[in-house]
Amino acid sequence: MTLKTRPLGTSGMDVTTVGFGSWAVGGGGWAFGWGPQDDDDSIRAIKHAASGGVNWIDTAAIYGLGHSEEVVGHALADIPAADRPLVFTKCGLDPDPVDPYKPMSRNAQPAFLRVEVERSLRRLQVERIDLYQIHWPDETGTAVEDSWGEMARFVDEGKVRAIGVSNFGVDLLERCERVRHVDSVQPPFSLIRRGSGIDVIPWAAAHDTGVIVYSPMASGILTDSFSRERVDAMAKDDWRRQADSHTEPALTRNLALRDALRPIAVRHGTTVSAIAVAWTLAWPGVSGAIVGARTPEQVDGWLPGGSISLSSADLDEIAAAAERLQVGTAPVRPK
User: Fold this and answer.
1) 3-class DSSP state of 186
2) CA-to-CA distance for 109 and 106, rounded, in angstroms?
3) What is the CB-side half-sphere exposure of residue 276 using CA atoms within 13 A?
4) Which CATH number belongs to the domain containing residue 315 in this structure?
5) What's the pLDDT at 329?
6) Does residue 103 form part of some domain?
7) Are 304 and 295 in contact (CB under 8 A)?
8) What's the pLDDT band for 3 if we cut at 50, 70, 90?
9) Would you say 194 and 328 are in contact if contact means Cβ atoms under 8 Å apart?
C-alpha cells in the first residue's frame, strides 16, 4: 500500500493524506486527557505509522501538559533522519499550574507564544518545527494580528517552517491572511461533525491554504469496535465520558451511522475506520486527516483510509444514512 500525498497549501510540504495524531499520547492527568497511556506503546505506534509511509505527526504543547511532545521527541530520535516524519505542533493554551483539570486559558499573547515555541523545540528535540499552529482563538484580549505577527517572526527567525491555526473561523482567518499568508488550518471534521465543510474548508481551498482535519473518526466512535460498553470502561479522566457525542441521546444515532458504514467497508475490503477517514479526504481542499492511535494495531485500522477513493455512489449512501439518522446539520457530502 502506497499512501497518496497532497500539497499542504503553498507551504512547500507534501503531506501524506493521513498523519499520526498524538493527542492520546499525552495520557491522562489533565482536563482533556484520554486516560492512562503507556509511553512504549505510543512510541511503537508512531514508529509503525512512519514505517507504513505516514510522513507527518501532529501534536500540541497542551497534550499531557507537554508529555505528548516529549514522547514524540523520543520516537523521532530513534528514526533515521532520512525517514523521519515532519513535525507539526500547536501553542497558545495555558494550563492552571495548581489544577491541571481546570479548563486552560486560551492565551495567544506574543510573549507567551515565544515561551511556548522554545519549550516545544526542546521537548521535540528538533531545531525547527515544520508547522506551528495557534491551537485556539485567544481569550486574553490580544488582537489576532499581534499574535499572527509573532508567528510570522518565528518563520523569519528559522524556528518554524510554516505557520497555521486550529479551530479558527473565517473571520479570524481573513484577519490573519491580511498580515501573512495562512499556510494551514486545522478544523474538526468528521461525518458526525461536518460544520467546517460549510465555510472553513471552502475558504482554505480558495486561498491556497492547506487543511488538516482532526478527529475524522469522531474520537473513536467511527471505528469498528466502538460501543456503549467501551464508554463505560473508559478511565475516569477520559474527557470523552462527558462529551455529548459519546453520551445519550447522540450516542445511539452516532453508532447507527457507524454501522451504516459497514457495507461500504466490506465492498472496499477495509475497515469502518478507513471509510470514515476516506470520507473526510473526499472533500475538495482537504490536504490530510489527523488520525490518532495508541497502539500499532490501531494504526493498521485506519492506515488504508489514506489510499481509498470513495465513489459517488458511496458518498450518496453515506449522505442518505446521515440524513435518515439525523446526525449532524451541515452538508452531508462533498460536491
Assistant:
1) strand
2) 9
3) 33
4) 3.20.20.100
5) 84
6) yes
7) no
8) very high
9) yes
